Every structure is written in structure tokens, then in C-alpha cells.
Amino acid sequence: MVNQLIKISIFLFSIIIIQSCNSKKSENFMLLNGKIDGLRKGTLYLQKFVDSIYISIDSTNVNDEFEFNMDSPLDEPDIYYLYLDKFDGDSLNDRIKFFGNIGKITINSRVNTFDTNAEIIGSDNQTLMEEYISIIRKFNLENLDLLEIYYESQINGNNKRFDSVNEAINNLIKRKYLYSLNFATTNANYEISPYILTTEVPDANKELLKQVYDKFNDSIKVSKYGKLLMEIISE
Questions:
Q1: How many degrees, rounded to 5, is the angle at CA 189 between CA 185 and CA 195?
Q2: Closest by Cα among 190, 189, 186, 233 to 209
Q3: What is the CA 129 to chain-centroid distance, rounded?
Q4: pTM of the prediction?
Q5: How far apart (Å, rounded) are the C-alpha atoms in residues 17 and 19?
Q6: Virtual torsion, Cα 104, 110, 112, 117, nearest 10 deg
Q7: Using H for helix, E for strand and C for coil, what is the string for 144-179?
Q8: Which residues, in sequence order, are CB contacts of 50 under 8 Å at separation 6+?
Q9: In the chain, what percentage of residues exceed pLDDT 70?
Q10: Quick check: 72 pLDDT over 90?
């Protein structure tokens, strides 16, 4: 009876230790999991982009199970990449960009539409980034249409239309910048805000950038992209 109680006590103590370790790990790690439908064989790499090259942080082989689990120590939310090597010699369209954070993040996709059909759950910054990108994509499509007209009018020597389209392009650029600044202001409590300003509109008016920066709380100001934004403003 005593031996049985000792075994039970040891078992319960082991569970407590494991749960404690997992809890501590989740407090300091990004725990990445998901499923890639249709993938029979491949290797997934968790990567960061450092000094113009992709650095692999973790990797896992994925076979018929489709599912994967990876993790990475994390100090603050940041941009990560999930790269899929299908061993087909083609590296195009095999990298998903996402905003990682501490805790659990789930990425589900399909092998044939890996980077275009990914569902990413568990990151507020990622949700906001997707919202931002959906609007910016509309600006970019409108810009492509205007550029087509711009070059046609230039080739045909239609100066009046050329000037009109040129003005429309400049106005579109201003609208895009204003949208980016307003988006960052509205979401000033998230790391996505300084990220957008440093990557999308770093050449915006410095006074406007400073106005948005001043709305950040202290944790955002001292974040990676908050510091980078201040460097841009101070140049």
C-alpha cells in the first residue's frame, strides 16, 4: 500500500513538473503548429530574414501525417517565415510570411497553394497585417492600371492625358501614405504599427512619423520596430 502511494505521488509530481516546464516554455516561446493538406513528403523550416538572408531557426520533416510542430524562443512579436522544401527543385511560392508572437500560432495551408491560401491563427499582429495588406493590394492594382495608361499616353504623345494620369498616380501615392499613417495611428498599441511605418512608408514626412510615434505606448516605443522608427525619424 505504501509503495503504491509512493508511485502515485511520484507520478503526480512528474505531471506537475512537466506542466510547469510547458507553462514556462509557452511564456517565452512561440509554439508553431499546423497542417499542410496534400503534402506527402517535405521539410518545413521556421526562418527569419537577417542581413539579407533567410536564417533557419527550427525545422521538421513532414510526411503523410501532414501535421507539424515547431517552436522558437521569442522576446517580442516579430516577422517570421515558414518555408516548405518539397524536394522538387522549385523554391517559388513556398514561403509564408507571418507576424509571430509568444504563445501558440497555428498555420494551416495546402501544398499546391502554400503561400497564397494559408490560414494563420493566434497572432493579433498577423490579423492586422492581413487587413492592411488587403487594402494595400487594392492601391497597388489601381497603380498598375494607371501606369498602363501612363505609358500608353507617353508612347502616343498624348500630353494632356499623360499629365492627367501622372497627377492621378501622385494622388494615389499620397492616399496610400495617408492610409498607412492612419492605420498605424489606429493600431498604435500593436507592433505592426511601427513595422508598417518602417517598411512601407519610411520616407514619409518625418513630422508625421513622429506624431504617430508619440501615440505609441512605452512597450511599442522600445520594440524592435519602434526603435528602428525612431532611428529613421532622427536621421
A1: 70
A2: 233
A3: 7
A4: 0.83
A5: 6
A6: -70
A7: HHHHHHHHHHHHHCCHHHHHHHHHHHHHHHHHHHHH
A8: none
A9: 86
A10: yes
Phi/psi class of residue 103: alpha, beta or left (left: φ > 0; alpha: ψ in -120 to 50)?
Answer: left
Q: What is the pLDDT of residues 132-178, one digit of tens each?
A: 999 999 999 999 999 999 999 988 888 888 899 999 999 999 999 99
Kindly report the number of other CB atoms within 10 A of residue 178's CB atom: 13
**What is the mean pLDDT of the segment spanning 197-225?**
97
Give residues with Cβ within 8 angstroms of 41, minimum separation 6.
Answer: 62, 63, 86, 87
DSSP for the chain, written as a single string:
-HHHHHHHHHHHHHHHHHHHHHHHHHHHEEEEEEEEET--SEEEEEEEEETTEEEEEEEEEE-TT-EEEEEEE-SS-EEEEEEEE-SSS--TT-EEEEEE-SEEEEEEEEGGGTTTS-EEES-HHHHHHHHHHHHHHHHHHHHHHHHHHHHHHHHHT-HHHHHHHHHHHHHHHHHHHHHHHHHHHHTTTSTHHHHHHHHT-TTS-HHHHHHHHTTS-HHHHTSHHHHHHHHHHH-
| Cα–Cα–Cα angle for 178, 144, 52, rounded to 5 degrees | 75
Tell me, letter by letter, the H, E, C secondary structure of 20-49: HHHHHHHHHEEEEEEEEECCCCEEEEEEEE
- The rounded radius of gyration (Å) of the Cα atoms in the chain is 24
